Amino acid sequence: MTPEDSYDIIVVGAGPAGSTAAMYAAENDMSVLLIEKKRDIGVPLQCGGFLPHYPVLQELVPNAELPVTLEEIPSSCIHATASYQRFIAPNGLSKGFDVDADSIDRRRFDKHLAKEAARAGAELLVGTNVTEVNETKLFMDGAFGEFEVEGKVIIGADGPNSIVGKASNMLRDSDPMGTGTAFEYELSGVDIDKEAVEMYFGKDFVPGGYAWIISQGDDTANIGVGIREALFEEHLCARDYLERFMYKHPIASKKLEGASITSVVAGLVPVGGAPKVTASHNTLIAGDAAGHIIATNGGGISTAMVGGKLAGETAAEFLKGKCRLQEYDTRWRQQMGLEIKTAVYVRKLMDKLMLSDRLMTTAIKMITPEQMKAIQCGQLPDPVKKTLMKLNVGLS
């Protein structure tokens, strides 16, 4: 494919945020180019793919207008459905709550979203890497050659280390605790609770983070650790912690015994919140590039898509003379900024607790299942705040 010399809107990154932005922009009669550096969209995988059902998402971000592509996920994109979320404390104490959610096949889901963007009229350019951003001119090379393409508006949905965000000085604060590593295995031959998503805590296995087991149906599962490099023991990496969890955790290892690793998944997770600015006079950022993640659970598919929808719509309205482009920043913060900001605050309260098995066990014991669910949704009930602050005082 040879792209045109110019477009109304150029979107960099064909993940959930980028494809959603491209779809909504194209539906608003804009000429749109969607660029993806991967030759095969969704591959390699970089996410576990846990996605609550539509009504749960409405509870998660009650002020947000969810994209239509979240209303009904094609069955071909769903590995399995979960009805319960379980927390396992360092001492083995288990507590949880009911939840309706799917384990998504991100390879198929990301392709599905990109196809929806193409059906809306966006042009798709895969296997192409953006090497330089100069205002609204992009320099690219890849599977189809080298190109210079200019847009009236650029939308950066190109991940935590966004080249678009960097070029426009829309950067997150430099904080080693604000970026996590998700390192995961896809397994076959497991014997797990197919109805539950499990989250494990303990400083020896995931200091300052958590490990998870998510069924993908039958005898398959995604397991992983969400951990920050600043908390690694000397000479250890994320893979070492996942290996320790898989083979040595007193509870998890029994469920995973004899399993075979069929895929390795890794990616960065921006859990430090959003940059101060996510919009300029000609550029917007969305998804991971804009910190659109609920830091208490690392979930970002739905929030990325909300950000993408708003980016695509706002860019189109701007080009029609109906608004300033900078209104995007206000719009997404009104729809989900409180949940994202609160989740970062809760994460910071939990950071020290998660380095103490005794205090983390106490926290899980004291917090009710309903309060756990609220925390997962980026909310902070007053009793939970008082409990966490009291436990943190004990650490100081």
Automatic annotation (TrEMBL):
Residues 181-267 form the Digeranylgeranylglycerophospholipid reductase catalytic domain. InterPro entries: FAD/NAD-bd_sf (IPR036188), Geranylgeranyl_Rdtase_fam (IPR011777), Geranylgeranyl_reductase (IPR050407), GGR_cat (IPR054715). Pfam families: FAD_oxidored, GGR_cat. Keywords: FAD, Flavoprotein, Lipid biosynthesis, Lipid metabolism, Oxidoreductase, Phospholipid biosynthesis, Phospholipid metabolism. The keyword Lipid biosynthesis applies. One of its GO terms (molecular function) is oxidoreductase activity, acting on the CH-CH group of donors, NAD or NADP as acceptor. It comes from the Archaea. One of its GO terms (biological process) is phospholipid biosynthetic process. Gene3D superfamilies: D-Amino Acid Oxidase, subunit A, domain 2, FAD/NAD(P)-binding domain. NCBIfam families: GG-red-SF (TIGR02032). This is NAD(P)/FAD-dependent oxidoreductase. It comes from Methanolobus vulcani.
